[in-house]
Every structure is written in C-alpha cells, then in structure tokens.
Amino acid sequence: MSINTDYSNIKWQENGKLKLLIIVGTRPEIIRLAAVINKCRKYFDCILAHTGQNYDYNLNGIFFHDLKLKDPDVYMNAVGDDLGETVGNIINCSYKLMNQIKPDALLILGDTNSCLSAISAKRLHIPIFHMEAGNRCKDECLPEETNRRIVDIISDVNLAYSEHARKYLHECGLPKERVYVTGSPMAEVLHNNLEQIKKSDILEKLNLKEKGYILLSAHREENIDTKKNFLSLFNAINKLVEKYDMPILYSCHPRSKKRLEESGFKLDSRVIQHEPLGFHDYNNLQMNAFAVVSDSGTLPEESSYFTSINRSFPAVCIRTSTERPEALDKGCFILAGIDEKSLLQAIDTAVEMNKDNDLGIPVPDYVEENVSTKVVKLIQSYTGVVNKMVWRK
Q1: Cα distance between residue 156 and residue 308, in whole Å
Q2: Which Pfam families match (predicted)?
Q3: Which run of H or of E encompasses 133?
Q4: Residue with the larger pLDDT of the pair 45 and 145
Q5: Furthest-apart CA pair in the chain: how many Å?
Q6: Has 219 been annotated as catalytic?
C-alpha cells in the first residue's frame, strides 16, 4: 500500500472555531484519546489523521466501532518496510498534510512513532499539545523512551498525567508554563463505556467462567523479540497453567503469534491464543479474571480504575521498569520483571493479596472523569499564547 501525500480533498468545516489536527497511529492512542476526540469534534473544527502504524482491523478499526468514534478523516498509510522508512514517511506525510490544511494546533498523545509528526508541526510553526507527556521509565533499551524525550522537548504545551511526570519535565528544563497535569484520560473512557463493558458476552462466547481463567497480553519488543525473555515468559505461562489448573486466554498480537510460530515453542493446550479483542470484551475479561498478566502500558490505569469501582483484579506487569511510578506508589499493580521465577512469584503474591482483600489505592490522577474538558480548555487557552510568545505571530 503506497503512502498518501495528496490531501487536496481534506477540508475544514470553516465554522469559525479553532482548527485542530489530531494525529494517531496505534490502538492505545485511539483508546486513550476516545473521549478527548469526541469533545474536540464538538468544540473545535477538528480533523483526525491516522498514520497507519496499526492497520489491522483488530488493532484499529474495531476500536472506532466500540468507542463510537467517527472514522479518521485522513489515512496516511505511512508504514514502511523498516523503522527508518516508517519514521521518514510519518514526518513526510504529516508535513505535507499540515502544510496544506494549515491547522491552528496539533494534538498528539503518547510515545509512538506517530507522535514524531510533532517534528513537522515544529518546522511549520504550529502549536503542539502533547498528552501523556513526561512519562519516563529510564530504560534506554525501549524505543518509546527516545520518542518521549524528543516529543516532550519540542512540544509547546505538555499535558502530563501526574506530578511524577511534571517533575520529570521540569528536570528536563521545561518551564512551568509549558507543563500542566490533566490526569489520565483512561478513566473517562472506561466510565463512558462501563455499561457496555458489563454487558459484553465474551465469557459465554469463549466458554469461560468468572474468576476461572487468567488473562494474558504480551506484545512488547523486549519480551517477544529477545530470545531469553521470550523463553522465560512462555515457560512461566506453561507452569502457571499447571499450578492453577485453569485456562489462560492470550490476547495475541499478530507479531507475537508470528514469533511463537517461528520459534516452534509448544504452549500448553490450555493456553488459548485469541486475536486481539475489542475494547468492551477485553475490559470485561479483565474485570472478571482470576489474574491479569500484561506488558501493556495501560494496565496500571485500568487496575486503578477498576479498584475504584470495587471490581479489582490481581494485576501483574511483565516488565522491569515502568513509566507510571504513581501506580506503584499506590500499590495498584506488581512489577514482575521478565525472569521466569520472579514472574511466577509476582503472580502468586498478587493473587493471594487479592484474596485477602489487601488491595492498592486508586491513583487520584487515574480516576478523573473530566480530562477531556481540561484538554479542550488548555488548547483553546494556549494556542494563541504560543503563536504570540513563540512564533511572534
């Protein structure tokens, strides 16, 4: 599929409102931005562009459907044959798009390659608003850590989730007027969809019983592409099945599935590999799981929210570092590492503590349900300020 650099058919509504461009590229961005996108469409003249970083329906389209989001106005098809080509395409496509439609501001979230579209906005003197700013795991092996530092520094207004993130940004030399704490947008998205999550019939479809299965999600490069970590993880999964004698439902990313097939690793027959699930189904599975074992960045936020509504689950993160230390501060999840022994111990601990009702405390910044309101008001407040103070417009 060739990249799209012709945007002559993309038009603003010309309704007199601020012209906001939002760029996404992956499933996590779509999920976390859902409430913000809908609110921005209400109060701004808004165009949503998708880089194509996740192009599979199960990694993309299903979430627009589940979250009642209008389809993107622009598909860039920017994914290349390798990282260098993909990053180059994202910068090239976003530059051409912004140069043509001339937005008043750009909104991005997170640390994916799609966020590098901020480089184009900076060169075109377009104010940049960056949600999830200031997250740091201090692990240079993670590609996201590089993206975070680049995007935080060049963004005009950084919208952080927590005081931890605000502190990191100030340590980087960013002044207070460029950093605001909005909280995480996940609680608002979960709250808005809670009834649909509860109504999901995914347990019945998969013949699973409440608290009778373990939910697994593992897709990160460091867990799947590194042989030692890959073997540690899946050896632990097989032992987990034996110990608890219950099925493990593995929400399996296409890349993870390919890696398993290529390796010839034999998973226990009770490990059910399933294509990535929709938003309502996956969160219903989390809410009803015996335990959730995941390397997802949203696990701490989801665990915090479900604890706040008395639907907590044992949450174990398959990583050695986290960019959400505030969730560790409150005991919302266990950071297990990737070593087989430590992972099994962490799961045992999480399960036993949950049985004893020895739970963490919801992170205040993770249970706010008006983040979209804050984001809209900050964009409206600071677009003109950035133009005047930075670009002398």
Answers
A1: 33
A2: Epimerase_2 (PF02350)
A3: strand 128-133
A4: 45
A5: 66
A6: yes
Question: Token pair 């389209």 is at which residue?
Answer: 61
pLDDT at 223: 86
Is the CB of residue 154 less than 8 Å from the CB of residue 108?
no
pLDDT band at 2 (very low <50, low <70, confident <90, very high): confident
Of 9, 6, 10, 39, which is closest to residue 103 (Cα–Cα)? 10
CA distances from 161 to 57, 186, 283 (A): 29, 10, 21
Domain count along the chain:
2
Regarding whether 288 and 236 lie in a shared domain, the answer is yes
Write down the pLDDT at residue 6: 87
Same domain for 166 and 213? Answer: no
50, 130, 164, 219: which is the annotated catalytic residue? 219
The token duo for 277 is 């699930």
The answer to whether residue 236 is domain-embedded is yes
Which residues, in sequence order, are CB contacts of 127 under 8 Å at separation 6+?
Answer: 104, 105, 106, 121, 156, 157, 382, 383, 386, 387, 390
Helices 299-308/279-287 angle, 10° precision: 60
CA separation for the pair 46, 70 (Å, rounded): 11
| Closest alpha carbon to 314 in 330, 294, 296, 329 | 294
The span from the CA of 336 to the CA of 333, in Å, is 9
Contact 219, 298 (CB under 8 A): no
Euclidean distance between CA atoms 89 and 341, whole angstroms: 42
Q: Are residues 361 and 375 in the same domain?
A: no
Which domain does 170 fall in, by range? 19-183+368-389
Q: Is the pLDDT of residue 101 over 60?
A: yes
Question: CB under 8 Å to 266, separation ≥6 — which residues?
Answer: none
Q: Distance of CA 205 to CAs 200, 201, 202, 248, Å?
A: 10, 6, 5, 15
Question: Where residue 228 sits, what CATH number does that domain have?
Answer: 3.40.50.2000
